[in-house]
Amino acid sequence: MTNETSSRISTAYVADLDDLAVGDMKMAKVGERRVVVIRTASGVHALDNACPHQGYGLVTGTLDGELVTCQWHNWKFRADTGECIMGEDNVACHQVDVCDGRVEVTVIEPTPDEERERLWPSLLSGIESNYMGQVARDTARLLANDAHLYDIAWVGLHYSFPREEDGLGHAMATAVDCLAWADERAGSDRALPLVQGLAALSEPTRGRAPRPTPDPAPGDLLALIEAEQADAAMAAARHLAASSTIDETRRMFIEAASMHHLSYGHGIIYTQKAFELLERTGWDHADVVLPQLAFATTWGTREDTLPYMSGAVATVHGLDLDALAGVPVDPSWSDPALVDDLLEATDPPMERAVAALEAGAGVERLLDAVTLSVSRRLLRYDLDIELDLDDNFGWLDITHGLTTSRATRWAYRASPGPDTVRQALWAVWLAYDTGRAERRTSVAVEPVIEGQRGDISRLIRLGDVHGTLAAIRAAGPSKAGEALIDASLSDGSGAFIFIAHLIKMVKASIEEAEAIGSDLPLLATGRFLAAPRLERFVTRNVGEALDFVDTGRPPKR
Question: Is the pLDDT of residue 106 over 60?
């Protein structure tokens, strides 16, 4: 890092004009910079010698008229301005003076403030084009020039939010988790999680036009969302951003997300991540975040309206949620069979969950059981199902059970009451639903795990499931969590949706392991990272399409 407040200027004699023919390129050193001096028909010019792509010398390239080509990857630059004609980044251009036949080059080293101002538009351009090399280089340069982590992240967040097709979703959730991890690091170690977050924002929104955002207007946010009046809900959300507090608004959005089992659990997850972002970076960004969250919540799939949830929904709707929320938590409550009962249920275990709440378990200990049951299901998941192209069930269906449990715990801690009791019951139903493949086929055996030291990240990369589980158990929660973060950030997946779930799952499992005092969530996540995954969906989608066209029937759940 540098604390300079004024530019440093270096000037050097680099050549006699008579020694430079038109078409010549010559390297010279000016201060600490290596430059390439170029003579074209338009005059003498000087550019940084290092190609901005990977630093190869432009002097070893070619000059064609006014165009300089770096031979390594065929990037091309205008000799007189440094503008990149083919490639991603411009190359720095320097002042040239010719006096009495002597060629002098002046290099002005920018201050950190000046360098940041130069880099902001370049970073945005890289995000717009999904040029991850450019984004990575600009991020590294911005960090080296004292740019604030949040300012870098918000370039991508501002670009992405109005362009996400369904409102705030996987891209936002991934970026928020990556930003949290970057914030826990120092120096250049922040770059990887930060750029992974920017990549998540860029890939699914590239080339999409921004969604128009209505002007702020007062309105009943909950009623507007329930009536699916998206524009009015967005306007009301903007009004809340200007007129309400984060605590009041958070409570409203939690209630909105919990009114339904929304988007297969994602409704409460996206609410959690959106407010974690605002808690981290400041309420002054609420006008950007809240309308897009309102849009996503308005149009989310209301799974509780679908036939297969009818029995569970009837149970939930028949409850006095206020009374259930008012049951005092009994510190002596214990029900060792609850986890097994949730895991092995052949029908939605809603009455079982309600009985635990009535007995004084409290929402958090009910969620402990949910997390443990889903973690065990992940540990015994039959990989033959994952690799069956004719089965539309997969890893991701089970991971939602754990990440939803985590988001529900966050919601309950932020806003305890009848709404989050209902949300906890949706989490119970989802834990049951994660077992639908087991109920169709058979239940695999849970592994017996004994600790043995090993490099967790390496074992995950090798696909050594047994070794990964043994190393996680031996490492303990703190070190295992750090290794799982590294593994989730290391491009261990080829599909964006899986990268998003890997990151989301690791974040949730670390937090849930701490909440419940068990390493089972970490072990479950380690198996998810290390085991084979069917990540390409073309074959499966073609099969489903052909079946549907042939039979007119939807795929089996």
Answer: yes
Q: In a 3-state reduction of DSSP, which class is residue 261?
A: coil
Number of other residues whose CB lies within 10 A of the CB of residue 468: 30
User: Nearest Cα to 233, choosing from 243, 219, 245?
Assistant: 219
The region of weakest confidence among 84-88, 301-305, 420-424, 531-535 is: 531-535
Domains of the chain in start order, with CATH, are: 8-109 (2.102.10.10), 112-205 (1.20.272), 221-304 (no CATH), 306-530 (no CATH)
pLDDT averaged over every residue in the chain? 94
Q: Cβ(162)–Cβ(169) under 8 Å?
A: no
Reduced to 3 states (helix: H, G, I; strand: E, B; else coil), residue 32 is: coil
Closest CA to 338 of 395, 304, 376, 308: 376
- Report pTM: 0.91
The pLDDT value given to residue 5 = 57
| Number of residues in the chain | 557
Longest dimension (CA), the chain: 95
Distance set, CA 439 to CA 304, 308, 347, 369 (Å):
21, 14, 10, 20
Q: In angstroms, how far is CA 132 from the centroid of its own chain?
A: 15
Query: Which residue pairs, CB below 8 angstroms and at least 24 apart, start in 449-457?
Result: 449/473, 449/523, 455/483, 456/480, 456/483, 456/484, 456/487, 456/526, 457/483, 457/486, 457/487, 457/490
Cα–Cα distance list, 436 to 226, 376, 394, 404 (Å): 29, 14, 11, 17
